[in-house]
Amino acid sequence: MGYWTLNDIPWEKFDPAKVDSDLVRIVKAASLVEYDGPSYARYLCRVFHDDAEFREVAERWGAEERQHGEALGRWAKLADPTYDLETAFRRFKAGFDSKLDGDVSKRGSRAGEMIARCMVETGTSSYYTALAEAAEEPVLKAICHKIAADELRHYKLFYATARKYVGREGLGLWSRVKVALARVAESGDDELAYAYYAANHHPEERYDRRRHGRAYAKRAYGIYRRHHVERVIAMILKAAGLTPNGRLHRVVSAGAWRFMRLRAAHFARAGV
Ligand SMILES: [Fe+2]
Ligand SMILES: [Fe+2]
């Protein structure tokens, strides 16, 4: 099992006066995506069908992601007793197709698959670090610290596997950069928008990708600070096989931070 369990969370310290309703909404969305971890683990086990050592790692990873979903879902229920993780998760699965049916990687190679996973773990480790810093409610803070540590460990694990397969498959630098950029671009896709909708809106309300995506992004972008973005860029460059702390890092970090500020200001003005 994982490095911690739900019993390690100080639930008794929950303080309703410190709950931020915007954070509750994005925590609910995150709980659904995390809770779906085992689906992705099953897909990874098919892609790496003849690598028993990695399959074991992938299964443990999937269970840890599910536990993230359980912890966030339980916290969301403390903050909003009407929230039910299982019910919301059924809605999420019924309406969102994560396209994980294949036996070969969607990224074209196993090394590519691992680089794409590194991008996701980069995103989640920075997201929970930012959420832990933004949250004033002590139980949410504690949960996010634990999850952020797991996500960083997941990044290292997939990074080590990526390196192994980059050598075996001979995946060149440009191909690695392309996979990394493609996965980063996908972070704007529907999964989080749909999770936000399934977790927060009445089933009779129709899903509107643009509106619900913006409602999610406004709240999520709002928690990032410059040092989170700088770390994200370093981790992305490293996973793609580029120098993580040189001039490229400075230029890309400055651009990414500026982009995020503009987007956050735009969403705030749009009042979503
Ligand atoms: Fe996670
Ligand atoms: Fe993770």
Structural class: mainly alpha
Number of helices, counting only DSSP H or I runs of 4 residues or more:
11
Tell me the overall shape: globular
Largest sheet: none
CATH architecture: Orthogonal Bundle
Which molecules other than protein and nucleic acid are bound? fe (ii) ion
Low-confidence stretches: none
Reading off the top of the CATH hierarchy, the class is best stated as Mainly Alpha
Q: How many domains?
A: 1
Helix/strand order:
HHHHHHHHHHH
Radius of gyration: 18 Å
CATH topology: Ribonucleotide Reductase, subunit A
Distance between the termini: 40 Å
Describe what this molecule looks like in 3D.
The protein has 272 residues and is mostly helical. The chain has a single domain, classed as Ribonucleotide Reductase, subunit A (Orthogonal Bundle). It has eleven helices and no strands. It has helices at residues 21-35, 37-47, 52-79, 85-95, 110-134, 138-169, 173-186, 190-200, 209-221, 226-240, 247-270. The protein is globular, with a radius of gyration of 18 Å. The site of one fe (ii) ion (FE2) has 6 residues, from helix 3 and helix 6.
Topology (SSEs and partners):
Blueprint: H1 21-35, H2 37-47, H3 52-79, H4 85-95, H5 110-134, H6 138-169, H7 173-186, H8 190-200, H9 209-221, H10 226-240, H11 247-270
Helix pairs in contact: 1-3, 1-4, 1-8, 2-3, 3-6, 4-8, 5-6, 5-7, 5-10, 7-10, 8-9, 9-11, 10-11
